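Tutorial, part two.
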Amino acid sequence: MSVRKLLPESIAGLEIERMEFPPGAAMAGIPHTPGTREYLTCERGQIELSAGGSTWTLTAGDVVVFRGDQKHGYRNPGSSPTIAYSVVAFAPVAV
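Running the prediction step on this input gives:
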């Protein structure tokens, strides 16, 4: 599987990545700071997201938002490659 930054420069408070999963591939996500929201969208194929004891299966065009500060993971349960995008919106830092 491969993960790469979508943009050539960073945007404060956001992380945007393109993920490619061959059939059957899986990846554990790293819990982010408390209050972080993560958005996952599927462009091609299907991707299974497990987070907080729940599981969602997304197909092309689907989007799900979940708490990114909990244990989570991704998996391609299908028989063809999957392309998905992750947008992590970090919680604002209190000053």
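The chain has a mean pLDDT of 95. In part three we will examine how such features are distributed along the chain.
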